[in-house]
Amino acid sequence: MPWLRRLLFAVVCLVCGVAAAQSIATPNFADQHQRLTKPDLASRGRIRFLTSTDFPPFSFLDVRGRLGGFNVDLVRAICDELGLADRCQIEAMPFDQLIPALLSGQGDAIIAGIAMTPVNHAQLAFTEPYFRYPARFVTRRDHGLAEPLAVSLRGRKVAVVDGSAHAAMLASFFPDAVAVAFPDRARALEAMTAGAADAFFGDGVGLSFWLASSAAGDCCAFAGGPFLSDRYLGEGQAIAVAPDDRDLVQAFDYAIVQAVEHKRMSELLLRYFPISAF
After folding, report:
1. Is residue 49 within 8 Å of residue 88, measured between CB atoms?
2. DSSP H helix total and E strand total for the chain
3. Residue 178 contacts by C-beta under 8 Å, 6 or more apart in sequence?
4. What digits encode the pLDDT tens for the residues 179-206?
5. What is the pTM of this model?
6. Which of 15, 2, 7 is nearest to 64 (CA)?
7. Whether the Cβ atoms of residue 9 and residue 60 lie closer than 8 Å to each other
């Protein structure tokens, strides 16, 4: 049930977030060497962000029906850094309505994981990525993999989801591993935990929450990595705006760099990722 998933997600964030904070790696993808000046947005009225509600931990409705998540709090941080907290709004709608709503003037920016595909680049402008999706190996705690993984994985069985980007990435990055394909992640993880495969290779974000769940039962841990690839995993998450609104792109890039410098990005990563995906 959606409400139960949201409740469990909120409890995990609350209980695990603080306890794990000291040991979580918090990568930041904004280039701190950029020489960006604070933009002047005094002439703008409100800035309307659009997002979705079914994209945890980035955006979701909590048990009280309130909009929350990493992206929602990032909007608040961006608006604070720009001195626009009183002029920023955020509205949620179905994902497939986001781009039409932006292009029709119902919003000024989308923060919802819009893929930076050639089609979307042709109709939207994007900030620099503020989050990248890592691929990770998971192994049983009693059967880890030593570095370098390229050596440890020779001849080893690695469970993957059949036809997935991670399966293709494994074949490219670790050609000496023996890929064992399963129709879905649940069965692939079951094979790994049962010993039918030495590791599982997949989405690090999803795996970070699986590792923290009762379903995993503290059986397993990340091994090696993280592994990033624009070719296989895309460019990550960025904020999308109308194609002619380059001033807003520059303003958001400036604010994200400032949020990184002021440790606000790290705080968000610690809050929403009890076990670091990185």
Report:
1. yes
2. 11, 13
3. 155, 156, 157, 158
4. 999 999 999 999 999 999 999 999 999 9
5. 0.84
6. 7
7. yes
